[in-house]
């Protein structure tokens, strides 16, 4: 074993076991950046990584991802993000997802395995910090009752907020809105309709009268009856929502958007119907749903995604990335081969900012993941490493060529 190989193995072990000093961490990344031979470096990292798996001689990608996450525990796990290098990048091809990219965020910096960029972590992150920044969104929503009364949920105290018909409306300590009671279907007269709306920079979770759970993304709304009666359970949304529908075969659950009706008995699915997106997408995680409009009807199976374009045509994609579709619910930005415009539309809604472009808009695709709890500059920092420049002024982000 060469001296370099032995040293690299030692550094990997120290980093993995969280015993590496700051100087040793810097040395690890300096070795990676300083190599002039892709083949040699690939072999060294492959061997050093495999040597960590003492009881498992085979290189298992899922095990390696767990190990990589353990390595990164000395930083803020919530801020970990992954950016896929170009397809022809040898380390990515040779080592796979887990070992091809290491990102060290112990102090909010990013270190990519890309020797051509020669990134000095501490210096570059200091340079990246903008004078202006934007904080992430949070649990904010406005509830409108049947009588027109409005309640700002982010300011409302926990406990009983109101009564609608036979239903009591509660705000829980963890920030959920819960509708309770009135489940006997014996309501008389008109059923009160409520609307919950999240602003840009807001999100909220609620439990409907039948036990169904709904997560609302930013700039979205849900209109629903305080109590479900009759033969169906019908709600209407704008924007994006994730549903976990309580099963009731005798009373199908229907979600209406501007262009479609989604019908389910009991299932988990995400639907995205923002007006500023070119297509509406419904992704099924569990159960089955029927999607229909004036011209088309399609039944989805778990793992499928239906896209409705502006011409009213429905296209079904098999093996959709369900994790990406519901990442927002789990507190993440996640995108695969996404354009800069697509990413910035998500950013605009979550950070409640306006976005403009100077010069030619970068025609590139990005793959990454990062916590939604970070400031706007940290999300944009991912793009900066890929050559996208930006500036933040008040509530405005400018993307520059």
From TrEMBL:
What PANTHER family does the database record attribute to this sequence?
PERIPLASMIC SIGNAL SENSOR AND SIGMA FACTOR ACTIVATOR FECR-RELATED, PROTEIN FECR
Signal peptide (residue range): none
Which keywords belong to this entry?
Membrane, Transmembrane, Transmembrane helix
- Transmembrane ranges, per UniProt, are 95-113
Query: Could you tell me which Pfam families the record lists for this protein?
Result: FecR, FecR_C
Protein name, as recorded: FecR family protein
All residue ranges annotated as the Protein FecR C-terminal domain in the record: 333-399
Q: Which organism is it from?
A: Mucilaginibacter lappiensis
Segments forming domain FecR protein: 195-290
